[in-house]
Amino acid sequence: MTTERADQLVRRWLYLSAAAVVVAVAVGGITRLTDSGLSITEWLPIAGVLPPLSAAGWEKAYQAFLAIPQAQSTHLGITLNEFQGIYWWEWFHRILARLVGLVLAVPYFVFLARGVLRPAHRRRLLLLPILAAAQGALGWYMVKSGLDVRVSVSQYRLTAHLGMALVIYTICLWTAFGLAGAVPAVGRISRFLRGGITVALALVALTLLSGGFVAGLDAGLVYNTFPLMGGKVVPPGYWMNSLGWLNPFENPIAAQFHHRVLALTTAGLVVALAFAGRRPEVPEPLRDATYAAAVVVLFQIGLGIATLLLRVPVALGVLHQLTGLAVLATLLLAAYRRPAEA
Question: Which residues have C-beta within 8 Å of that of residue 195, sequence separation ≥ 6?
Fold first, then answer.
């Protein structure tokens, strides 16, 4: 097999893997927004592939759910038929997670055995099956946090679960970009553009992770106004003395405020990078990537505002998540297309 053909196969696998992560994030978002994530109260890696197949099986799963705190609060009075509705979302999420794990793991070992992977990529891509397995364990660790005392999963574990998905997504895209073509050997671009892309990537990552805390704390359901919160820039209730330095992670008002500030700061920087990319010495591929990032981030800001004002409808909430991944992808492409310093 030629090197070009081998790189093409690996690149297609990596793009497919990144797409699989996007779908998993979307379904995970729906599961979270519909409060379906705790409907299956046990972890059965093999047997759990099958849903209840009889009335007795459904009754058993229903009674197990009724025993957890969420059933006595968020889902108080839920019927068996209503329980089946949320059960199917969580079941689909778990099945999809297993399929994503297979997409990440099986091709890696096949390509490794066939000598298709570049030597420089073998260790990096080994992280994909390892992280896929870790993500499954972390997913159950997250669910377990909401089964005994809490009425929802831990926002810390939810954010860690999201963060691991972002790491997998980034590895897939960055490696695929490297197989798609060479970066310009040398070039002169402004320090602002060169360093700003790195800063923007860091800000996007922080904004996405802060969104995990917003989701975990249901912080999108407070102060559904824009641009002010409670008529003020810094909202009432931002600081609770009892929480101290934990306010950003456990106070819904602080979590939403920080997410807003990070999102708007990120958007401003990305738009500024697009303007910096207009300079004549900037290579066209990099210019196109910065333009794309600016368009997507502005769309993302609009989505975020609409999601907030409408009190987080499921469709908009999930689309907001996915557009965040698109912002990350365009900035990764911009970072990859930066020419090496002369």
Answer: none
